[in-house]
Amino acid sequence: MSAYTSTKLLSSISRRSFAPSNQLTYQTSEILAMADEVTKTMIIPNIMAVREEYFVFYSDLPIVRGQAAYDIPARALGRVVREVQIINSNESITDLPRTEPERVTSLAQGSPTSFYMRSNQIVFNRPPSSGGSTLRLQYFLAPGDLVETSAGAVISSIDTGSNTVTLSSIPSTWSTGNIFDFIKRNGSHEYIDIDYASTDVSSNAITFSSLPSTLAVGDYVALQGESPLIQLPDLYRTVLAQAVAATMLEGMNQSGADKAKDTASMLLNTAQSLISPRIQGETRVVIPDTWFR
Q1: I need a labelling partner for 181 at 20 to 30 A (CA). Which of 154, 241, 289, 292 fits?
Q2: Is residue 65, in this structure, part of any structural domain at all?
Q3: What whole-number distance in Å separates Cα of residue 258 and Cα of residue 255?
Q4: By residue range, what is the domain housing residue 61?
Q5: Phi, psi dihedrals of residue 88, rounded to the nearest 5°
Q6: Mapping DSSP to helix (H, G, I), strand (E, B) and coil, where does residue 84 land?
Q7: Is residue 71 part of a domain?
Q8: Which pLDDT belongs to residue 45?
Q9: Residue 13 pLDDT exceeds 70
């Protein structure tokens, strides 16, 4: 299956809105901005409502002796954290329960046994008495802001020795020091990994200090927080195109706007009914925490 790019999305929107290719009401950047708004205000909440772990990502932070507070990753959707865990030096995982600030009764250092929220930080109930462990924050990572296909690049070869990727072409605005994301070429085009600073950008090659182990030829590179691919389950591609077309028709005061909105709503409900449950042959059961001890 070929990648579902912003170019394909724009073609679908054009067909559904009956907008001619030479229309002047909406620029391409404006149509993509509408698609971002629809994604964030309509589609993501619809997908998140089924609670099937879509968009889950994680960041690992080193635990520092005496430091109790750690920032929630800046790209976490709504600054919401899915899970808080400590990974010890022996690679065992401790799940930390959430408590409330008023239940913290001592500032003495020790092993954290819970955490509480303070603004956009995770705060341990006590400062850790030693370092060497890892704080793993699982969170929801929103799709990147849509850009034209020419604003991203396809990987044509990978040199793991020098951590260099050669691309089909590189936008002229890219330069050394830019921060990039890696996006899968297949499926829902989810992130492979994010926030990689380039150490060199020259010709059609970009060098990094490291590369994701699962990166493959054909995957995409984009500037941090951008995406030339539609990073949604494939069932929602039609929903997105229809909803944007409806918004355009409404903005142009066209008579078909209401019907287009009704169609978008119907498609949205249909898509949601098909993504849950994600595992069809097994029943989800609640396992007591004591089972894992």
Answers
A1: 241
A2: yes
A3: 7
A4: 56-141
A5: -80, 170
A6: strand
A7: yes
A8: 97
A9: yes
